[in-house]
């Protein structure tokens, strides 16, 4: 079931011991995630899903969906399951399967999208899919599809919807672009590119909980801080939003000549990490103060950080650069610990 592709490998001695350094000259990295249990780091690329096992650093990474563009992934927070979206040769993006990383087996696999819909086609991928994530208890998947939000129970049947919200009344002319799972609740905060009510709080059991019309322009991403607070990001600023009061406050602005839209990640510690051209920065969400700024020398001018994710304890994080380099860092010191590999290039698949 696992398809291996030819790797150019070399061994390097780093702080974590002997590791396999991967160089993939035919794959563009489009995003990465660190599993909730801390074991797996997955990289979705234009040519398959690369899986690194942090418990076995000497092992070569496994590659699934060889030659397929893996668009988005979502970890189940309570298991080794990974939901996978791929884009096929027809440029259709669809929920392909749920993969068990421990066994390497597909737990459930959706029928391929041949076009036309029907019972065998749970999604008609005519609109862009920007975000995908599991609920806190792992019981359902929330997914954006154009102006729609779907809630799926993927282990029962891809074709059975827990709920389907056709929210044209709220998302007039705007795509749903970002989701935030609000703490341990089943509430999902949805950000859309809409002229009004650009934030909607949904629950698969209760439907629409609340809708909000902020006057913040150019919103790109929403992150959950806790059950009632979210972090909103624009190109050059971040805001803390209260879902109970509908109020928001400016948290931080991007340094001169930089942008927040290239990459950002909210760690469980309450620290916002943002990346730009040749640097990354950590910001304390509680105070808005900059905790750390790290400048990184890169071989190519204008190399930028495009994606982050953190180990469960927050002590380390993994980054993707636009030159394709993937590195593990120490969160406290800001020092690089280990380079996992290098791809043809790197991009944030949501924003380019």
Could you tell me the CATH topology label.
Methylamine Dehydrogenase, Chain H
Low-confidence stretches: 1-20, 111-124, 159-172
Helix content: under 10%
Domain count: the total is 1
Write out the strand line-up for the largest beta sheet, numbering strands in chain order.
Answer: 1-2-30-29-28-27
Which architecture would the CATH scheme give at its second level? Answer: 7 Propeller
- According to DSSP, the number of beta strands is 31
Strand content: over 45%
Largest sheet: 6 strands, mixed
Using only C-alpha atoms, the radius of gyration works out to 19 Å
Under the CATH scheme, which class?
Mainly Beta
Distance between the termini: 31 Å
The average pLDDT is 75
Question: What would the keywords be for this entry?
Answer:
single chain, Methylamine Dehydrogenase, Chain H, five-stranded mixed sheet
Helix-strand blueprint:
Blueprint: E1 8-14, E2 17-23, E3 28-34, E4 40-45, E5 48-53, E6 62-64, E7 69-75, E8 81-87, E9 93-100, E10 105-109, E11 132-134, E12 141-145, E13 148-152, E14 161-166, E15 176-181, E16 188-192, E17 199-203, E18 207-212, E19 221-224, E20 229-233, E21 237-242, E22 248-253, E23 263-266, E24 271-276, E25 279-284, E26 290-295, E27 305-310, E28 316-321, E29 325-330, E30 336-342, E31 345-346
Parallel strand pairs: 2-30, 3-31
Antiparallel strand pairs: 1-2, 3-4, 4-5, 5-6, 7-8, 8-9, 9-10, 11-12, 12-13, 13-14, 15-16, 16-17, 17-18, 19-20, 20-21, 21-22, 23-24, 24-25, 25-26, 27-28, 28-29, 29-30
Plain-language structure description:
A six-stranded mixed sheet has the order 1-2-30-29-28-27, with no helix packed on it. The protein has a five-stranded mixed sheet with strand order 6-5-4-3-31, with no helix packed on it. It has strands spanning 8-14, 17-23, 28-34, 40-45, 48-53, 62-64, 69-75, 81-87, 93-100, 105-109, 132-134, 141-145, 148-152, 161-166, 176-181, 188-192, 199-203, 207-212, 221-224, 229-233, 237-242, 248-253, 263-266, 271-276, 279-284, 290-295, 305-310, 316-321, 325-330, 336-342, 345-346. With 352 residues, the chain is an all-beta fold. The chain is globular. The chain has one domain (69-346): YVTN repeat-like/Quinoprotein amine dehydrogenase (Methylamine Dehydrogenase, Chain H, 7 Propeller), CATH 2.130.10. The chain contains no helices and 31 strands. Helices cover 0% and strands 49% of the residues.
């Amino acid at each position: 079931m696992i398809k291996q592709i030819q790797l150019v490998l070399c061994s390097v001695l780093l702080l974590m011991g002997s590791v396999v350094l991967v160089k993939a000259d035919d794959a563009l990295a489009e995003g990465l995630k660190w599993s909730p249990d801390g074991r797996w780091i997955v990289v979705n690329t234009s040519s398959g899903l690369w899986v690194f096992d942090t418990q076995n650093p000497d092992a070569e990474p496994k590659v699934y969906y060889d030659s397929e563009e893996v668009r988005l992934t979502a970890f189940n927070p309570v298991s080794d399951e990974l939901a996978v979206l791929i884009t096929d040769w027809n440029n259709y993006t669809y929920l392909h399967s749920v993969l068990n990383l421990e066994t390497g087996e597909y737990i459930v696999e959706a029928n391929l999208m041949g076009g036309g819909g029907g019972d065998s086609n749970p999604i008609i991928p005519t609109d862009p899919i920007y975000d995908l994530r599991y609920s806190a208890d792992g019981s359902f998947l929330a997914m954006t599809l154009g102006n729609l939000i779907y809630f799926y129970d993927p282990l029962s049947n891809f074709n059975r919807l827990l709920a389907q919200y056709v929210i044209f009344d709220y998302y007039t002319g705007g795509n749903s672009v970002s989701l935030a799972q609000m703490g341990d609740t089943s509430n999902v905060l949805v950000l859309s590119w809409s002229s009004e009510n650009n934030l909607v709080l949904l629950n698969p059991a209760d439907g629409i909980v609340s809708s909000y019309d902020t006057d913040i322009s150019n919103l790109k991403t929403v992150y959950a801080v806790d059950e009632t607070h979210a972090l909103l990001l624009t190109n050059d600023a971040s805001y803390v939003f209260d879902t109970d009061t509908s109020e928001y406050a400016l948290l931080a602005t991007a340094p001169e000549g930089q942008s927040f839209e290239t990459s950002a990640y909210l760690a469980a510690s309450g620290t916002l990490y943002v990346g730009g051209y040749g640097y990354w920065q950590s910001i304390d969400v509680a105070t808005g103060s900059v905790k750390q700024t790290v400048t990184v020398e890169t071989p190519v001018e204008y190399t930028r950080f495009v994606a982050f994710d953190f180990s469960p304890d927050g002590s380390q994080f993994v980054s993707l650069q636009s030159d394709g380099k993937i590195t593990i860092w120490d969160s406290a010191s800001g020092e690089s610990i280990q380079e996992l590999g290098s791809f043809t290039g790197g991009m944030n698949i949501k924003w380019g």
